[in-house]
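Now for today's protein:

——
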Amino acid sequence: MSGLLFGLAALALLAWWLLRRRAAVLPGGVVYSDAPDAPTLVSHRHRLAGRPDYVVRGARGPVPVEVKSRGCGRHGPHAGERAQLLAYCLLVEAEFGEPVREGLLQYRDRAVQVPFGEAERRETAALLAAMVGRQERHRSHLQAARCRGCGTRAACGEALG
């Protein structure tokens, strides 16, 4: 019986610790969460749509948070992870109608704050423009399995049967 009580106490302590750890990770109140019924954020201006893991209310405005399952490592965020977060910053600005000053990449071992100012806005807009240019080129459809699994298949005029 005492073993069962000890196990329950340990489980309760673990749950309390996990909740405190998550609260420490997310500064401020959560105002958006990528729950199954959450809306997709859209910026028509940037031809962009997406769903950040969280948006929290920080002291200086909304803060998009992207949670990564890996550790950050000594070299910091990958360029693609940073670009993804900056795109979410644009989406949050469009959705909330107020400037975003930073985003947060939350790794298993640490959080990395990523500033979002005019230079990052220009960088992200240029990256998105380059991606649109690539998407408008003729696609190779030599692999039917890849075509069937493509995320843009519904809108593609070149999709295989």
Observations:
- The helical segments are 2-25, 79-96, 118-135, 144-148.
- The radius of gyration is 20 Å.
